[in-house]
Amino acid sequence: MAALHAAILATSIGPGERIVASRDLYGTTTGLLNTIFANQGIGIDFVDTGDLAAVERALGAGAGGPARVLLAETVSNPLLRVADLPALADLARGAGAHLLVDATFTPPVLLRPLEWGADLAIHSTTKYLSGHGDVLGGAVIARPDYAGPLQTVSRLVGGVPGPQEAWLTLRGLKTLPLRYERQCENAATIAHWLADHPAIAAVHYPGLPGHPNHALATRLFDPQYRDREPSGDGRRDTPHYGAVVAFAIRDADRDRVFRFIDRLDLCLPATSLGDIYTLVAYPAIASHRDLPPKARARVGIGDGLVRLSAGIEHVDDIIADLAQALDGG
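The chain above was modelled as a monomer; its predicted structure follows.
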C-alpha cells in the first residue's frame, strides 16, 4: 500500500484533479482512494475498465476536474478479468493522464505493464516476488522520469523496506521463474479439472477458452511465446495464464463453503496468494467483506465463490485434496 500511495503521489496529482479507477480493485486500494486522496480534494471516479467507452467518458474533460491518473489492475480480484493495457494506455495518453497498474497478480515473468504502455507498475512483494509468505513489502517499477518523485516520497513519507525484508525479497526473486512456471501449470490443470466437476457451477480462469478475456490474455501474457512456432524440443509453446483460479461451488451458501474449506488438508485457508503452498480464500469474508450480499452479487461474487492460489505441490495431490473436500458435502 505504501508503494501504491507513492506511485500516485509521484504523478503530482493535486486538489481539483481526478483519479479514474477500476471498479474491481483490491478493497484496501479502494479505501486508500476514498479516504486519503478524497480527503485531499481529489475526485475519485470508479469505472468498469473492461468498458473502454466508459473509461474514455470518465477521462473526458466534461466529467469534472482533469483526470490525472487512470488506475487499473492487470487481473482483477477475484474474478480474474484481464485489463486491455494497450487500449487503456492509449486512452490515458489521449487524456493527458498517467496510467498506473497494480500488477501483483501477474509478476514480471508473465507480464510487464510498462512494455504495454503503462507509466508505473506496482507489485505487492508480499506475494509472488518474495514467494514464501514471510515478507510484507511493495515495489514500484516506473519510467525514468518518475524516479526523482518516487525517491522523494519514499524518503519523506517513510515507506521503505527494512534490510531483512529486502534480503528475503531478493532471495525469493532468485527462484521466481521456477516457482511461477510450476504454479501456472498447476493452476491450468486445476482449472480444467474444476470445469468438469459436477459440484462446480463456474470457473474463472483466463486460460479457459470460455473466459471472456481469453483472447486478450493470450495476446498480453508471455508475449515472447506469442508468435513462436511449436519448438518440438519439450519447451512450452503456449503462454501461461497466471496461477490464480476462482470457482463457484454449485448452490453453495456460506456454510457449505466453510465445510469445504474445513475439509481441506493440503490446501491452506489464507487471504494471501503467491506462496509456494496452495492457498484458498473466501472473498465474501476477505477481499469483499465490506460489500453487502446484493452488491457482491451485482459484480458476480456470490456466496459460493472461492479463490485458489496454486502452489508448487504436485498437482495430483492438490486435485485429490480438492476432490475429497468437494465430495464431503
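The two ends are 38 Å apart (CA to CA).
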